[in-house]
Amino acid sequence: MTLTAGNRMETPVRTCHPVILCGGSGLELWPMAREAYPKLLMAPAAERTLLQETLHRVTDPNRFAAPLLICEAEHRFLIADQTHALGITPAAILVGPQGCGGSATAAAAAALLLAAQDPEALLLLLPSDHYVAAPERFRDAVDRALAVAAQGAFVVFAGASDGGTGRNSGMFMFGARRYLAELQRLEPETVAAARNAVDCAIRNLNFLHLDTKAFAAAPTRPIDCAAMERTCGGAVVPLDGAGWTDAGSWTALWTAAAKDCDGNALVGDVLAEGVTNSYIRGESRLVAAVGVDNLVLVETADAVLAVGRDRVQELRPLIDRLARAGRGEHREHRRVYRPWGSYESVDAGERHQVKRIIVKPGGRLSLQKHAHRAEHWVVVRGTARVTRDDSVFELKENESTYIPVGAVHRLENPGAEPLHLIEVQSGDYLGEDDIVRLDDSYGRA
């Protein structure tokens, strides 16, 4: 059954529950996306990230309940920060294994939780890293889908491809109980694994950690293959005029972006002369280009990518080479994010490293010690509360302290503004694994 814009059905519209899948790294958008800082945290077309744009599309209280998000453990604090920045309180943040397994199992876990609260719950299953140029047209499509899903259909939203024909957008709507019943018929092992993962889940801070062993027992299958392509109750709702793209490559972002009269999408501090049909992005410095065509040029603080726009699908071998060489550029940016804030290496050499540290208001690093390095801390802005062995004291701007090798220590920000600090490390080994956590506010000890 295909539902078009004119096929509105006279069925009472129920509130739906957005379920946002936040798994994966999206390394096809390297060097902006990294394993530890995935594509959904990029802001390719606006100030909001792809995840925040997704959340913003489903914040109408007349249509949507509070969103439920599913992510992997490494990214959970970044995901929580994204919701907090928008003033959104999620219904839950579910934490699954790396990659979050297959979307069929993730959707089953969400359906089990939501059906227990609302037997008539309708799920709107959304990837976190898609781009929609016209959110109001997307919401129109959701309204049409609600009427059909309320009658028991499994709705897939179809986006227009370059050729103008519809293709699966990876966005779906269905009733929670209806999905579980159909999946029980088609793949009972997936339902059993999801149920065990939910039943054995552990709540920690604001996260619900699904049981990893139980979750891993399910087949790693996307919801398309597990259910949507095999059910007899499918329906299609077109995303007419929504300007949808899956942001799956630099070429896809170029296609979706606003372009100048020469066909260029220029982001950041960019100067272009005689450049045509190109995507050029500068993140930390001036990027200049002359006389090139059909190019993707992306600059970050630690890497520069130059690739023909018709060759962007060939990035994976290059990223694999970085990993095999033991380099870190495939995994993290120079600025590394932690639950308490971030740090950035600004200089490193034999037996020394200098970092710029930012601690969020109320943030506190773990109580820890190092076997190989000593640290000097200088407060640049804000107030630092320092624990050093048996002493607890505060440092103001332009004040400093010394943490000897082996000293038990902790850094906190008791203030209402971010704490900026310069850390100078010295010693015979400066790796991040030279940390013994004795206590941690974020469950990492």
Give an account of the 3D structure.
The protein has 10 helices and 28 strands. It is globular. The model is unreliable at 1-13 (pLDDT under 50). The N and C termini lie far apart (53 Å). Helix 3 packs across helix 6 and helix 5 (176-186) crosses helix 6 (188-199). Helices cover 22% and strands 32% of the residues. With 445 residues, the chain is an alpha/beta fold. It has 3 domains: 16-245, Spore Coat Polysaccharide Biosynthesis Protein SpsA, Chain A (Alpha-Beta Complex), CATH 3.90.550; 250-319, no CATH class; 335-439, Jelly Rolls (Sandwich). A hairpin with a 2-residue loop joins strand 18 and strand 19 (341-349). The strands form 7 sheets. The chain has a 9-stranded mixed sheet with strand order 8-9-3-2-1-4-7-6-10, with helices on both faces. The chain has a 6-stranded antiparallel sheet with strand order 18-19-20-27-22-25, with no helix packed on it. Strands 12-14-16-17 form a 4-stranded mixed sheet, covered by helices on one side. The longest helix has 15 residues, at 103-117.
Short structural description:
The chain is an alpha/beta fold and about 450 residues long. It has helices spanning about 50-55, 75-85, 105-115, 135-150, 175-185, 190-200, 210-215, 225-230, 250-255, 315-325, and strands spanning about 15-20, 70, 90-95, 120-125, 130, 155-160, 165-175, 200-205, 205-210, 235-240, 245, 265, 270-275, 280, 285-290, 295-300, 305-310, 335-340, 340-350, 350-360, 365-370, 375-380, 385-390, 390-395, 400-405, 410, 420-425, 435-440.
